[in-house]
Write a structure and sequence with these properties.
The complex is a heterodimer of chains A (about 300) and B (about 425). Helix content of chain A is about 75%, strand content about 5%. Chain A has 13 helices and four strands. In chain A, the strands form two sheets. Chain A has a two-stranded antiparallel sheet with strand order 1-2. A two-stranded antiparallel ribbon of chain A has the order 3-4. In chain A, helix 3 packs across helix 13, helix 4 packs parallel to helix 7 and helix 12 runs antiparallel to helix 13. The longest helix of chain A is centred in the first third of the chain and has 36 residues. By secondary structure, chain B is an alpha/beta fold. In chain B, strands 6, 7, 8, 9, 10 and 12 form a six-stranded mixed β-sheet that branches. The longest helix of chain B has 28 residues. The chains are: A mainly alpha (about 300), B alpha/beta (about 425). Chains A and B meet through helix 6, strand 4 and helix 12 of A and helix 4, helix 5, helix 17 and helix 18 of B.
């Protein structure tokens, strides 16, 4: 009771004219540090990067403008196209699996089982480990198992594909679970009770009451796992580094079958030669446009399904 | 609680602001007059020694020397990032033709500088297309097959029994066959992960390029657009010998995670493909100089009884032409000090190998002594032709990928793929970066 009173008191203080007026007048001052950091850390590099994608450069200060040459070079890059398609397929599979599993775990952990908090902590923990470390640890685990069959994760594309799926599920399920748990706890009790009284089955309650009510969580989780999938780099690098390759015997060049798009971009940037950096920059611009478009499309489409409580 | 939190935030803000301010203030301070040295080093294993050397110089002269070491395999990325900064490296590494192409415009012309005049050979100089002296070697190294003579003796052989590929093969196969009784195997493991694959895509590959370059020296004066692959069979013979006659199943090699250095140091193998830089770590682990030697990569080429070790370097110094005038001066002075000062050059030689400078200390490395012994006996030294490899990371990765498939299933068809990655891959990668 005492707490409530205090809260009311403090909110009255915030609403007082004496405080409100200076806040209104100097609001921009409080926004300034963040706005400046955003400008320095995001907007400026972004514009610079956009510009450099039309340049041949070695360091960002030494560039020559080459027009759309870099973009034209990408058209000939089969590996980039392959990596894009591979990344898309991989992302679809991982989005579905991560969200289904995370939702299932969250649902189970909101049913009031004993030790719920313990399980939540345990499921969340993998998320605290860095991607590179995870990649190496899991490559050891997979190789340990596969060595019984006298093979290893670098030998087949399928191994690399599912290996990365397992790794990412393991890492991300806990994080998404937390968001789902929050969503599930916000589902109004009375609605569920009403459904029960009306004789709805458990399944019906889940699909007609619970899921529509956690739609905001589903929106955010799908968005996160979708963009995470496209942007995946560390884990990909540490687990397979794109191997195995399929060799074109005529050219002696490989198509690396588990190389995802972010890894491809960083690899291009690291190559020697005058054009590699500009080309990588152009790839990054295309990459940004793709991820942004797909992310926004997904957001609008799932937002439509959200219900207001 | 809230108050405490707010206070904490304010503190963090204040500290970070102070930190930013402090750093710039310091930079403006003492460097402006005297100039300073910033060395971007590319060998993680020599970082500790370089830090000591830097401190020695600062103590002696008061000039600030910063040594930053790029993580293994990321030198180019680090260099790219550092070069963009307001205080870029003044001393960096431009180790081969491709690097000269990439970084040549940043290189200060070292022609007729005092440091260039200290060189005792013109073997380690890299020029750009216009004849500008872009970089000079600060040390050279050698590699080959390190042999544990004590173990060889236990197996009933001596160094005289190994004079060419035939004899090496006979000895290795015999030891491998008796590995269980002897308690050690012929070769250390040959992991194909990044920490070890360079042994085969770099060092071992050199024999192929080297013998090709002997056949056509003119074509190999600069990086050739394509190679023939004439000695691929020799390369395969030695690779197979190493992979088969070791304790590790070749199907496991792709995954990596082996520690060849430890295997050798613990006396589990007689032969270990590596370079002179392993000496200090082997010595620390208890191996003695008299028990160790290094032999050439024997691979069945005619006349190889007269082969010596692979000697060369990727350790080439370049001075940043875009650095401040006084920093360039300071850097040149530091370089000269490092190759002439008795104490400093002794320390550098210990970690680097031989420094090809008139007044530098002598190296006490037994493997380098072995390289010299071969050379003075009239054997031919194999230079590091590997330095020409075009688009090197991609090129080598292609070979590793093909070799993984070959190790999983060692058929002729799979070796054809290795050959394609090796030979056709050279031409394609050359075209990719020069096209």
């Amino acid at each position: 009771m005492k707490k409530k009173k205090k809260k009311a008191h403090s909110s009255a203080a915030v609403n007082s004219k004496l405080l409100r007026r200076p806040i209104r007048r100097f609001g921009w001052l409080f926004l300034l540090p963040m706005a400046i950091s955003f400008l320095i850390g995001f907007i400026w590099p972004f514009l610079q990067g956009l510009f450099l994608s039309f340049c041949k450069f070695r360091t960002t200060k030494k560039w020559t403008f080459v027009g759309i040459d870099n973009y034209l070079r990408i058209l000939d890059d089969e590996q980039f196209l392959y990596s894009f398609i591979y990344t898309a397929i991989w992302t679809i599979v991982s989005v579905v699996l991560i969200n289904v599993i995370a939702f299932a775990v969250a649902y189970a952990l909101t049913q009031g089982i004993k030790g719920t908090n313990f399980f939540r902590t345990v499921f969340f923990m993998p998320n605290l480990i860095g991607g590179i470390v995870l990649g190496y640890i899991w490559s050891m685990i997979f190789d340990g198992i596969l060595s019984y069959y006298n093979t290893n994760i670098l030998e087949k594309t399928e191994f690399g594909f599912w290996g990365l799926i397992i790794l990412m599920c393991w890492q991300q399920v806990g994080y998404m679970m937390i968001i789902y748990v929050a969503g599930l706890q916000a589902v109004p009790e009375d609605m569920i009770e009403a459904a029960k009284i009306d004789g709805a089955s458990g399944w019906k309650t889940l699909t007609r009451i619970t899921i529509p009510n956690v739609m905001p969580s589903i929106t955010i989780c799908t968005f996160l796992s979708l963009t995470n999938g496209f942007k995946l780099y560390d884990q990909n690098l540490a687990l397979t580094e794109g191997l195995p390759g399929v060799l074109d015997k005529a050219t002696g060049l490989n198509t690396y079958t588990t190389e995802m798009i972010a890894l491809n971009i960083s690899k291009t940037f690291g190559q020697s030669g005058a054009f590699s950096k500009g080309e990588a920059q152009a790839k990054a611009v295309i990459f940004f446009i793709l991820v942004a478009t797909i992310g926004l499309l997904q957001l609008t489409s799932t937002r439509k399904k959200e219900v207001q409580q | 609680m809230k108050k405490f939190f707010a206070l904490l935030l304010v503190l963090v803000l204040a500290v970070s602001l102070a930190a930013c301010g402090g750093e710039t203030g310091k930079d403006d301070g003492d460097d402006a007059k005297t100039g300073s040295v910033y060395w971007l080093n590319f060998k993680p294993e020599s970082d500790a020694a370089l830090q000591e050397i830097a401190k020695m110089y600062t103590d002696e002269t008061g000039v600030k020397v910063t040594v930053v070491t790029a993580a293994s395999g990321t030198y180019n990325d680090t260099l790219t990032a550092e070069m963009d900064k307001a205080t870029p490296p003044t001393l960096f590494v431009v180790g081969n033709d491709a690097a000269v192409k990439d970084w040549g415009e940043f290189c200060y012309d070292l022609t007729d500088t005092e440091i260039a005049k200290e060189l005792n050979t013109d073997a380690y100089q890299l020029f750009d297309a216009d004849g500008k002296l872009c970089s000079i070697g600060y040390c050279y190294e050698c590699y080959g097959i390190i042999v544990n003579k004590a173990l060889l003796d236990q197996a009933g052989y001596s160094m005289d029994d190994i004079t060419n590929f035939e004899t090496l093969k006979a000895v290795a196969e015999d030891i491998h066959a008796r590995a269980n009784d002897l308690g050690f195997d012929a070769f250390t493991s040959s992991g194909m992960d990044d920490s070890s694959s360079w042994r085969f895509t770099g060092h071992l590959a050199n024999l192929e390029y080297y013998y090709e370059s002997v056949d056509a020296p003119d074509a190999w004066k600069t990086c050739p657009a394509e190679i023939k692959g004439t000695y691929m069979d020799n390369y395969k013979a030695l690779y197979d010998l190493m992979v088969v006659n070791s304790a590790t199943d070749r199907a496991q090699l792709a995954a990596g995670g082996f520690d060849a250095n430890a295997e050798f140091a613990e006396g589990k193998a007689v032969f270990y493909a590596n370079g002179n830089w392993e000496w200090s770590s082997l010595n620390e682990k208890g191996l003695k100089a008299e028990d160790l030697t290094m032999i050439p990569y024997y691979c069945g080429v005619e006349g190889e009884e007269k082969a010596g070790l692979n000697c060369g370097t990727e350790n080439y110094w370049a001075v940043n032409a875009e650095a401040k005038e006084e920093d360039i001066e300071a850097t040149l002075a530091f370089m000269k000090w490092l190759v002439t000062d008795a104490e400093a050059s002794a320390k550098a030689v210990e970690t680097f190998g031989v420094m090809p400078y008139k007044n530098a200390a002598e190296s006490s490395n037994p493997f380098l002594a072995q390289a010299n012994a071969y050379a003075s006996a009239g054997n031919y030294t194999m230079p590091w032709v590997t330095n020409f490899q075009p688009n090197v990371n991609e090129y080598r990765k292609g070979i590793v990928s093909a070799m993984n498939a070959y190790n999983a299933d060692p058929t002729d068809a799979n070796w054809d793929a290795v050959e394609s990655a090796f030979v056709a891959g050279w031409a394609s990668n050359y075209a990719a970066v020069n096209g």
